[in-house]
Amino acid sequence: MTDHDVAARLATEAGELLLKVRVEFADAESKERKAAGDKRSHDFLMAALAKERPGDAVLSEEGADDKVRLTSDRVWIIDPLDGTREFSELGREDWAVHVALWERGELVAGAVALPAQGVTLATPDVPAPAASPVPPRIVVSRTRPPAVALAVRDALGGTLVEMGSAGAKVASVVQGVTDVYVHSGGQYEWDSAAPIAVARAAGLYTSRIDGSPLIYNQDDVLLPDLIVCRPELADAVLAVTTA
CB of 30 within 8 A of CB of 18? Predict the structure, then answer.
C-alpha cells in the first residue's frame, strides 16, 4: 500500500469513527463531544500509523511533541479533528481529518477527509477546480476573518464565504466552491500540512502571505499564515499581502 493510500484510508476511517462519536454523544454537552472526538480519532490514527508505518515519526495536534521527528526522514503530520467547534455543532459539515506525510523536507502525501460530506480529497490525483466565476470568492473564518482577507476581498472586488475548519476552507478552494483562502494568525503545522499537500496536487498556488514557501517539520510548529488560491489569482493576492 502506497503512502498516498495509507493517508487516504486512515483519514477516511478516522472520519467514519468521528461520525459514530457524534451519534454516541448526540445528547451530551458539546465539550464532551469535542473531547471524545479528539481523543478517539487521535488514538485510532496513532495506533494505525504504528502498525502501517512503524518506523516513521508522528506529529499530532493531540499528542506530545516527540522531538525525534526532527532527526527522522519521514514524519506523519496529523490533525485528528480539525474544527472541533463545528464537529460539536450537530449538523455542521465544515470539519475535517488531516493526514499528511513529510519526507526529507517536503510534503509527499496527504489526505483531507470531510466526513460529514462523505468526501476524502487525497494525493496524488486531485482534480483541478473548474473555471472560476467573477467576482472571486474569499473563504474566511465564521468568527474572526483576518484583516488581510478583508483587504484581499476589497482589492479583488470579491465576496466573502464563511466556513469553519482550515481543512474545510482549503478543500473548498480545491472543490471550486471558493477561490482564495488567506489566513494570518493562530495556526500550526497540523492545521495545514494535509490541506496544502492536497491543494498542490490540484495545481493550486500555496505559500506564506509574504510569498515564501510553507515549510514543515520545524522545531517550532507554529505556522501562522498561508495563501491557497487559484494560480491565476496569485499575483493579485500577493500584491495585497506583501504590500
Answer: no
Q: Is 163 helix (H, G, I), strand (E, B) or coil?
A: strand
Q: What is the mean pLDDT of the chain?
A: 96
**Residue ranges making up the domain that contains 223:** 137-241
The predicted structure's pLDDT at residue 133: 76
- Facing residues of 206 across strands? 228
Dist CA 61 CA 14 (whole Å): 15
- Is the separation of the CB atoms in 195 and 146 below 8 Å? no
Q: Which of 99, 122, 145 is the last residue of a domain?
A: 122
Q: Cβ neighbours of residue 64 under 8 Å, at least 6 residues apart?
A: none
Query: Above 80 in pLDDT, residue 144?
Result: no
Sequence-distant (≥ 6) Cβ neighbours of residue 186 within 8 angstroms: 224
User: What mean pLDDT comes out for the span 37-63?
Assistant: 97
Confidence check: pLDDT of 146 > 90: no
Together in a domain, 118 and 142 = no
154 and 193 in a single domain? The answer is: yes
Cis peptide before 54 (omega within 30 of 0): no
Kindly provide the residue ranges of all beta strands, DSSP E only, lying in 88-208, ordered along the sequence.
96-103, 106-114, 119-122, 137-141, 159-163, 180-184, 205-207
Domain for residue 130, yes or no? no
Total count of domains within the chain? 2
Asked if residue 217 has pLDDT above 80, the reply is yes
Residues 143 and 214 in one domain: yes
